[in-house]
Amino acid sequence: MLNEEEGILLEASWERLAGDSPQARAVGRELLTRWSEPHRRYHTLTHLWATLRAVDILAEEAVSPDLVRYAVWFHDAVYETEPGLDEDRSAGLARELLPMLGLAPERVGEVARLVLMTREHAPGPDDSDGQVLSDADLSVLAGAPDEYLAYTAAVRAEYRRVPEEAFREGRSRVLRGMLDAPQIFHTEFGRIHWEARARSNMLAELDRLAAEAASPDGPRSA
Question: Which Gene3D superfamilies does the protein's record reference (predicted)?
């Protein structure tokens, strides 16, 4: 959970990025309200803050790190657990609100493009900003084992209306698809520092999901 100090830092991060004009403050309040919606369990202010911190780590590999930061603020601003539609609506929100900050149309369009890229997390080889955003968004996969368990529990809570068997099958399919890819992370830093740990975490999660499916008692608490 985001603590009070981190909340203050998050507000300051937005002010450094967007300024302190009345329009910037209004857009910031809108975004923070959206990220604070009660149905969220993983895609919360804590995820927003962690992703922004990851962008700071990767910033030297970005062409336009501030546009990446704007994309972080907007990439899950609409979150209703509707993959595809959420990204479209979040990109639409960026197109609606960013002109209020005085961003040029081409910069607004680039932020919207980056938001849409998070649908598949498959930036092209020359898309440095997309690579930084994708890696920052997925950096949670490389957390310590207890952090990764907390992440998976939060994801399950967001899909609490999905029956256990359907969730296990869907989640396992997503994990296998990512593990079958040549690489999860696209930046040099991500490949060196996050790739191996993320794969270890994801393989362990697949083992847990398989054990739950085989257990007559159903899911076990971690």
Answer: Hypothetical protein af1432
